[in-house]
Amino acid sequence: MGETRIGTAGWRYPEWRGDFYPRGLQQRLELEFFSRKLNSVEINGSFYGLRKPSDYRGWADRTPDDFLFAVKAHKIVTHERRLRDVADDVAEFFDSGLLDLGPKLGPVLWQLPPWLPFKRARLAEFLELLPGPPVRHALEVRHPSFDTPELLELLREHEVALVLSDSPPGRFPVLDHDTTDFRYVRLHGDEELYVSDYSPEALDGWAKRIREWDTDVYVYFDNTMHGAAPHNALALAERLAVPVG
């Protein structure tokens, strides 16, 4: 088993205050608190708008040396332009400062919309634009047409991880395949999307699966809306004896 990173999709949620975050904790100190409890987080604000280099440097400075940030790519590439003619947009995203995270930069997450079908030529052209090592990339697909060996062939060729996406039955395709030297898991809610808590039995099941993977693993809970995500992440980290802060 390689290195395991467990966290949540973002860290700033009003529902977490007075629950996961102690009552009275200043908002500017939430990342510091989070990074002493878990060893990674997905930056999802970068999906909605480009951030500044000073943002990334500030996040890196406020977290322990062994903390890692996954970075969700800007939606202009994945949702607005739908991977078409995005060379300038991909370059602008990487120029926005995420590389300033330095050794704290984890994988870059490219989340595709559910209405975008698989088209081999379009995806191949996009993957050619992605910078190689030390940057790692993970692709989350949400249209059923991506369930094809052609996708796996492309991802293995470009050393991109296929996200294992867990959500309520029938919502997103569940594609569980090794395509590179790490695994990336997003847990969106057991029964209700972005909301449902994972039961102890469900967490036991995920812990068992992760132990069987002989590779680095990144796991992020996206059931953030009612505050279950950080508690589920802590419970999974405890099951796997993942060290933190």
What is the topological layout?
Blueprint: E1 4-8, H1 30-35, E2 40-43, H2 45-48, H3 53-61, E3 68-72, H4 75-80, H5 87-95, E4 105-111, H6 120-127, E5 137-140, H7 149-158, E6 161-162, E7 164-166, E8 182-187, H8 200-211, E9 216-221, H9 228-239
Parallel strand pairs: 1-9, 2-3, 3-4, 4-5, 5-6, 7-8, 8-9
Helix pairs in contact: 6-7, 8-9
Features:
17% strand; single chain; alpha/beta; 4-stranded parallel β-sheet; 245 residues; TIM Barrel; globular
Provide a short characterization of the protein structure.
31% of the residues lie in helices and 17% in strands.
Can you describe this structure?
The protein has 245 residues and is of the alpha/beta class. The protein has one domain (4-239): TIM Barrel, CATH 3.20.20.410. Helix content is 31%, strand content 17%. It contains 9 helices and 9 strands. The protein has helices at residues 30-35, 45-48, 53-61, 75-80, 87-95, 120-127, 149-158, 200-211, 228-239, and strands spanning 4-8, 40-43, 68-72, 105-111, 137-140, 161-162, 164-166, 182-187, 216-221. A 5-stranded parallel beta sheet has the order 2-3-4-5-6. Helix 6 (120-127) packs parallel to helix 7 and helix 8 (200-211) crosses helix 9 (228-239). The model has no long low-confidence stretch (mean pLDDT 96).
